[in-house]
Specification:
It contains four helices and five strands. It is an alpha+beta fold. A three-stranded antiparallel sheet has the order 1-3-2, with helices on one face. Strand 2 and strand 3 form a beta hairpin.
Length: 138
């Protein structure tokens, strides 16, 4: 088979597919700020757990035109009224464990049976080394 390729220009716009990993991080960072918009988020059970946790710390999250408009708590977190249930999201657990170390009070995180068996000692040790009081009952 003989193939000839002619030089040409490609024009247009391509949107990257949404990323669960980037969505978690964008929600958390937006919640820590004053206000931000997360465009083209990947909404899943895991990222919904991150949204619920951000709201529990005092952020507001509005879904509009394939974006999340997040009014953050500007570094001034409120103590959550209830236990934060991260369901089966390891990323939510780890990010929100770190975020909870910024609260002037206690925060309790839990999840399903699987999440409660995952190792978190290195993160807890790092937070304790930085002056937080963080521990696991498992």
């Amino acid at each position: 088979m003989k193939l000839t390729i002619n030089r040409s220009e490609v024009k247009g716009t391509v949107n990257a597919p949404p990323s669960k990993s980037y969505t978690h991080r964008a929600i958390a960072i937006a919640a820590l700020s004053r206000k931000a918009t997360v465009h083209n988020p990947l909404i899943s059970e895991d990222t919904k757990a991150t949204i619920r946790s951000a709201i529990a710390f005092g952020a507001t999250v509005e879904s509009k035109n394939d974006s999340l408009i997040i009014t953050g708590f500007d570094g001034k977190l409120k103590i959550p009224d209830n236990v934060l249930d991260v369901a089966n999201s390891g990323t939510t657990l780890r990010i929100m464990t770190a975020v909870s170390s910024l609260v002037d009070g206690a925060t309790v995180l839990t999840g399903d049976a699987s999440i409660r068996t995952r190792p978190n000692t290195p993160l807890l040790n790092a937070l304790n080394d930085l002056g937080a009081i963080a521990f696991s009952t498992r």
